[in-house]
Amino acid sequence: MEPLFSHSPRSEPRRTARGETPPSRVYRLELPVPRDVVYRAFVGDAHLWWPADWTRFGEGTHVFIEDGVMGEEGENGETVVWAEVRHEEPGADIVFSWSEGAPAGSPTMVAVELEDASDQTLGGTVVTVTQDGSASGPGGDAQLDRSSDWRAILERFAAFFGQLPEAVEQLAGGRD
After folding, report:
1. pLDDT at position 105
2. What is the predicted pLDDT for the residue at 171?
3. Is residue 156 part of a domain?
4. 3-class SS of residue 106
5. Is 65 within the bounds of a domain?
6. For position 173, what pLDDT does the model report?
7. Measured distance CA(97)–CA(12) in Å, rounded
8. Got the DSSP string for 53-76?
9. Pairing mode of beta strands 69-73, 25-31
10. Which strands, in side-by-side order, build the sheet including 108-116?
């Protein structure tokens, strides 16, 4: 189960021409697990699967989603809030206003949606992550870079359920 314990390298950022707003990023992952289990793992077990490369404190950090925020706590007790939970429907979706690394007043929005897979013989779940709403121009590129590479994050989430990184599909935007 090596993908769970190794961290994906960060990709080079996608650049936009003439200061355009970077496109939305949309990723999809199908898991052979019921929605309620996937939701509980995403929200309640983030500290077990979230890649240390996408934390400020690195190894030993505790990633959390609770009390209306998402963030991390370092081994020394220091806390950083990454995002505010804007909407949450357990088992269906959670939407974040992601401000960590964003230019003042321009958070990016991250929506995590869970749906039953079309083939319900295995009780599977489709996870779709959409990230958009970043600032325009180079600031938006930097903001998307700092606000996480959802492909790498979902690859770790897939590994948490025993799936290969290739299970994560890029549907729109993202990196070249």
Report:
1. 63
2. 87
3. yes
4. coil
5. no
6. 74
7. 24
8. GGSSS-TT-EEEEETTEEEEE-TT
9. unpaired
10. 62-66, 69-73, 79-89, 93-98, 108-116, 125-132, 25-31, 168-172
The pair of three-digit structure tokens given for residue 3, joined into one six-digit string: 């993908």
Assess if residue 69 is contained within a domain. no
The reported pTM is 0.78
Furthest-apart CA atoms within the chain: distance in Å = 48
How many domains would you assign to the chain?
1
Ordered per-residue pLDDT tens for the chain, 176 residues: 334 434 333 333 334 444 555 567 899 999 999 999 999 999 999 999 999 988 889 889 999 999 999 999 999 999 999 899 999 999 999 999 887 755 556 678 899 999 999 876 667 999 999 988 665 555 666 666 655 688 899 999 999 999 999 999 988 875 54
Residue 117 domain boundaries: 23-44+82-172
Contacts of 80 (CB under 8 A, 6+ apart): 56, 57, 71, 72, 74, 100
Tokens 């935007």 correspond to what residue? Answer: 173
Backbone angles phi, psi at 167, to 5 degrees: -70, -20
Asked if residue 40 is part of any domain, the answer here is yes
Category of 18 on φ-ψ map: left (φ > 0), alpha (ψ -120 to 50) or beta: left
CA–CA separation, 36 and 38 (whole Å): 5
For the chain, report the end-to-end CA distance as a whole number of angstroms.
27
CATH of the domain at 150: 3.30.530.20
